[in-house]
Automatic annotation (TrEMBL):
Residue ranges of the TM segments: 57-79, 85-104, 111-129, 135-154, 161-179, 185-205
Signal transduction histidine kinase subgroup 3 dimerisation and phosphoacceptor domain residues: 234-299
Protein name, UniProt field: histidine kinase
Coiled coil: 214-241
Amino acid sequence: MDIESRHRPPTAPPPVARRWVVTRTREVFQGLGAALTTPTTPGAPLLAGAPGRWVRLLPYVVAFSFVAALLPSTVVLLINDYGVNGALAGAVGTAQTLPLLLAVARPLEAWWIVFAADVLGALVLLGADGTRAEYWPWTPPLVVGYCALMLALGLRESRRALFGVWLATGAAGYVLEAFRPAGYTSVHTLLLVLSGVLLLLASAVRARGDAQRRLAEQETISEAERARRTLLEERARIARELHDVVAHHMSVITVQADSAPYRIPELPEAAREEFSSIAASARESLTEMRRLLSVLRSDGGEGERAPQPGLDRVQQLVEATVRAGVPAELRLAADLGEVPQAVDLSAYRIVQEALANVVRHAPGASTRVSVRAEDGWLTVLVVNGPSLEEGSSVERGAPGTGHGLVGMRERVRLTGGSLDTGPLPDGGFRVAARLPLRTKDTE
């Protein structure tokens, strides 16, 4: 190795910035190729999701109108102004305009056909000898049809595909500009600007529609999640309230089982052991219920220590409603018989929620609350608006939607009863619940 070669500095690697530019350029053009050959939603017509049939047919009507207007004008222009052979003019005009019908469902495929036909048509014009030809390389009907195609593309394809279409349009126009015959007026810049503007506008309209659709879907999902969360919260609240009811019965069982050997001295030893086992199981059940209740309490609090309300406090609810400005009356049967605690609590909560809805949604409306027992069922009726006749039954009301009455439905389902809610034929609203006064096991 000679001295000069030993002291020659090594060839420096290409700068990082140059490599990055080359890499990014390669990625961009590879992405453009994939975008130009892969339609976003192939086969789905424009406005396919519109509710009206005539709205869905509108793109086909518009496309057919363009074809009907542009095809004959293109053929006549090529023959009369550019001196193109009739058969060749018909073929070129058909290839340049008829794919507009395809653009309704497959605009990207239609663009490939139209773009190739436009370039081929420009090459045909090179050999034409018409004396009235003025424009190069695109004819006026071609510009109109191409702009219509840009609108269809912008409403359907991705931004990368639209950028590729715009680049191809500009590149073809500038290449053909190099072969422009003398005396012709260049229109490739006009088409490039028009196509770019239309692609941007259509893309913006599509993006706005997509955003609105996603927002509507998100609102639907949010509403469903909100309804589900409301249902779960109401179920947890019911479970917390029923804890006191069940705990009371379990406590009674525990006390009775523990005190049985002292109250009945002649009990055999086996019975004493059985009562002791019952008391232990009851205490264990109470412990498990308290553990479950601690899971159901989302706020981590200890909860209310006051006794759970029942029908004996319905009169207080009605009086509070009257003080809130709602004229209300209560018809509570004197002898309701023995009402289970779960039914007693559910009936109170149903009346409470119904009166709260009246105060919120129908302030000032006359309201009547009726509670009576018949044939083993407790009937709770809350009506605002026109009063009902005496003796009206639950089944006489029109079935309602029950919107916003999640708690009522859950409580009725819990006790095995039925709920009927909805507007009355002559105005007002009606809530009617039938709750069983005894279970099948006690019948």
